Amino acid sequence: MAAGFASxxxxxxxxxxSYNIVGRRKIWFTISTILVILSAIFLIKPGLNPGIDFRGxxxxxxxxxxxxxxxxxxxxxxxxxxxxxxxVATVGANSLRxxxxxxxxxxxxxxxxxxxxAYGVPVxxxxxxxxxxxxxxxISQKAxxxxxxxxxxxxxxxxxxxxxxxxxxxxxxxLFHDLIITVGVYAAVGWEVTPATVIGFLTIxxxxxxxxxxxxxxxxxxxxxxxxxxRWTYAEKANLAVNQTLVRSINTSVVxxxxxxxxxxVGAVVLGAGTLRDIALALFVGMLIGTFSSVFLATPxxxxxxxxxxxxxxxxxxxxxxxxxxxxxxxxEGELAATGPMxxxxxxxxxxxxxxxxxxxxxxxxxx
Length: 368
Fold this sequence. Notes:
Blueprint: H1 2-14, H2 25-44, E1 49-50, H3 52-55, E2 57-63, H4 70-80, E3 87-91, E4 95-100, H5 105-119, E5 126-131, H6 133-162, H7 165-189, E6 192-193, H8 195-223, H9 234-244, H10 246-270, H11 275-306, H12 310-328, H13 333-339
Parallel strand pairs: 1-6
Antiparallel strand pairs: 2-4, 2-5, 3-4
Helix pairs in contact: 1-9, 2-7, 2-11, 4-5, 6-7, 6-8, 7-8, 7-11, 8-9, 8-11, 9-11, 10-11
């Protein structure tokens, strides 16, 4: 299997095998649009579930419980504060976390005693903490500032590095695409948004842009001589770059997703709710969708932008017309007019030729 995968990757790189990813960009754009719309719907309803770090309130941890009945905790809190709608979650193997809005000091002590009695544990097994809403506001502002600064720097650096604002714009589109879908999935699952979740969101931006830059670097290399030849269009040479980096993208994603999936399983199933679960879900979804956008969204969108340039547009028309004219000699003209010019892979690459012994460096005669 490994040998077959390696052979497949080699065929993709040399151009002997090629998938028309760029040519089928309408399919990928449609899939991305549907995913973004669904994510936007989930963000509206049910919406994100902000954790106590963002909304503020009181939190109680009951450890060493034998009965993890969550309804018991809800009933216990509501006996003391009837207006409360506590959020209860299992933490680890034998602990419960109960979150409420801000309670008075007297109410906090009453809730601690009541929870200890309800679950049959010492009062010392019930801890309480208070988080003010200003903390969450500060975290939210810093997260937004961090994203804005990141996006501005990405735009400037990519525009300078690639000397092409279209690549920077396509990379930003892929970033927004990844972020919206990741946040939408998080809203659909209903897990609380914690500072760890925000860290996960910021991390996937870096991963997504890294994968996109690698693909774009190959696109720039392959398309540098586009206007100097008349065999392939800009889109076909860019498509070759996507195929050449496809195996690398798959390998990088698998290597990154396996440990994240393990952390997600441990955090969600073994340990219950916690920091590991929150950050792992954001990373897993973000990396998965980031790989998709780097291959199927960023480069096809960049090709759409480049094909609006007069020089690229004229070159593409020239190549396609020459291709139709060449095919007309062996095919029916009416059929060609109906089907149009077919996709031609931009490969295979030609191997270098051996120049023989004469090209080897001359050896100086040794002195006797």
